[in-house]
Amino acid sequence: MKITEKDIDDLPKNPANYTALTPLGFLERAALVHPHRPSLIHGSLRYTWHDTYARCRRLASALLSRSVGAGSTVAVIAPNVPALYEAHFGVPMAGAVINAINIRLNASTISFLLGHSSSAVIMVDQEFFMLADEALQILAKESKSNYNPPIMIVIADESCDPKVLQYALGRGAIEYEKFLESGDPEYPWKPPQDEWHSIALGYTSGTTASPKGVVLHHRGAYLMALSNAVIWGMNEGAIYLWTLPMFHCNGWCFTWALAALCGTSICLRQVTAKAVYSAIANHGVTHFCAAPVVLNTIVNAPQNETILPLPHIVNVMTAGASPPASVLMAMTRHGFRVTHTYGLSETYGPSTVCAWKPEWDTLPPENQARLNARQGVRYVALEGLEVVNTQDMKPVPADGTTIGEIVFRGNIVMKGYLRNPKANAEAFANGWYHSGDLAVKHPDGYIEIKDRSKDIIISGGENISSVEVENFLYQHPAILEAAVVARSDEQWGESPCAFVNLKENIEKSDEQRMAEDIMKFCRATLPRYWVPKSVVFGPLPKTATGKVQKHLLRDKAKAMGPLMKSKL
After folding, report:
1. For residue 453, what pLDDT is reported?
2. Interacting residues of 235 by C-beta distance below 8 A, sequence separation 6+
């Protein structure tokens, strides 16, 4: 008897053969398989996987006891400390959504994010409590009678000023360990009924008026976590150093990947070359992720801060601004094995990889570095990656010269932007996610970014919108016109370079003084890394229709050479 399509496809789902995908189960398994293996190390503090599982369940239970669950957002403002790692499991175990906030932002921007996300809880590291407190005061003032203050939880750290902790407790904040004590270590959490349920919220670059909230789901987080391990060849028990901020795309989903691998996380509050080398020597670090700016710091570290040659091969994943070939070569000489990836917040972090080919092993180091500087091919968990002509959505020829826009499709593309239907319609036009990044496709199928259509500047691995900086510069009383482009920066990879045309009645003889005044003006409001580090005066080149010709400004910035040392 012939099997029909109905026979083979109509077998129903049931609890025995189907459950929603979620990375939360990785933690439960790690605690079962390796309960005594270190999960987190932070200075003298050490937790096992048994400890971490219990602490995350306590966090979920404590949140639910305060009616923080499905539909709630929990904001976390913290560097790479265990509490932030625990929040990546404890918050979604309660059914809530984690919003890890960039600690480099200023109070007004954080205030906007807290308000836009309607955060019910704010977990804040002791070092950044004053920043969070200022943000809440701004939010309360702007919300007026509609303000409902969130629950404040302060994460104590003995390395921070104890007076800040006392101030926080006086302001009604609950100390994190006390909060955990109110929770149940045996809390019977359950996975979401629907894997489309939101697990995380993260914000793209922008000033207080325009950051976009990227919403991610459990399915994507699960697939990306496993994809990271496959792409990188990470083994069970990997020892991972947290040089990449966990607030950056949820640590590129390595927060969840480390649990899947039953690995060990080495936390760093502050990232320095000395700390990296020390962790390799003292903890046997096997993997870490970092923006090119960090790699540059590592290869240029003073000899007394290094441990060369390395005691073992250390795997490094880099993304952000394209790493210079010279830095890749230097990392290889030092004994690091670098994997170059590319992605966005909207794709859970890195979603393409410059997959290394064995035939490249025999090439000269310069050629290897040049090939490895490309953005590469799609991740295992990404179903679609293409470079297209935006007019007709047809793929550009794989000739290495024809420029098109990079578009994505698949399970590791965001659900969408929170409360922003217009941005969603634009981002998902024609059934693809539009990155806004312009690239070519080489004959071997590897893509390479040539420009950024939205003029995004990537400084130290963080995105800066040039348009947003320009809009702020226009508020300076002496500025008539402004345009901002990326300038090569020895320390940060890229930094903002402002081209400014002053008003006619402004004295232009003392340009150095004016440049310093403009930077001071920006520092008073903008995040520190958004402040232009270079200011160039003069008329802006324009097209016949009055549009600023940014490609000419980029050429000028390139001709200026890299900024050798940050002025800020």
Report:
1. 65
2. 261, 286
User: For residues 209 and 196, is the Cβ–Cβ distance under 8 A?
Assistant: no
DSSP annotation of 563: B
Question: CATH 3.40.50.12780: does it fit domain 271-452?
Answer: yes
3-state secondary structure of 502: strand
- Write down the residue that tokens 């070519």 correspond to: 440
Q: What is the mean pLDDT of each run of 10 residues along the chain (568 residues)?
A: 78 93 98 98 97 98 98 97 98 98 92 96 97 96 86 94 95 97 98 97 70 96 97 96 96 98 96 95 97 84 91 93 77 94 95 96 91 94 96 96 94 98 96 92 93 74 79 86 90 92 75 91 91 93 66 91 68
CA distance 383 to 378: 8
Tokens 């016109």 locate to 481
Residue with tokens 């080149």: 541
| Cα 110–Cα 112–Cα 117 angle in degrees, nearest 5 | 95
Domain segments of the chain as ranges:
45-217, 271-452, 456-559
Nearest to 388 by CA among 453, 331, 338, 340: 453
- Write out the two tokens for 455: 């003029």
Whether 458 and 449 have beta carbons less than 8 Å apart is answered as no
Within this chain, domains 45-217 and 271-452 share the same CATH topology: yes
Residue-level pLDDT at 463: 74
- Candidates 134, 136, 176; CA nearest to 154 is 176
CATH architecture of 456-559: 2-Layer Sandwich (3.30)
Q: Three-class SS of residue 381?
A: coil
- Roughly what angle, to the nearest 10 degrees, separates helices 24-33 and 82-93? 110
Cα 432 to Cα 219, 325, 374, 456, 482: the distances in Å are 18, 31, 22, 20, 33
Q: Which residues of 77-102 are buried (b: 16+ CB within 10 A; e: fewer)?
A: bbbbbbbbbbbbbbbbbbbbbbbbbb
Contacts of 426 by beta carbon, 8 Å cutoff, 6+ apart: 434
CATH topology of domain 45-217: Rossmann fold (3.40.50)
Contact between 318 and 232 under an 8 Å Cβ cutoff? The reply is no
